[in-house]
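Reply to dn_fold:

You asked what the input looked like. This is it:
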Amino acid sequence: MAVRLPRNLETLRKRLQKTLPARIARTVESYDCFAEEEAPHDAKGFAAHHSACKSAMAHADMLIKIAKWTEDKKEEPEKDDEVEKLLSEARKALSGLDKNDE
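and this is what came back:
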């Protein structure tokens, strides 16, 4: 199966907004099923079982953080406008200095 790479972060963000909820649900469901199994009684098996549970929870946590990233899109065009305005004013001031030097 060929995977289409996103063209930019916004495309990736939109794709993840659609797919992450189901992935998170599957991850948590898988964790629940595995965690309900009785842990082995020997030390090695017990440690492996708990390590697997921690790994699944870390995976779910990371998916949730990524999901939050997809929702936390901050609108910043106003800041860009402010920066452009400041740059424009600075250019005018500098061009005025150049004229005064002549």
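Residues 39 and 45 are 7 Å apart (CA to CA).
Hope that clears it up.
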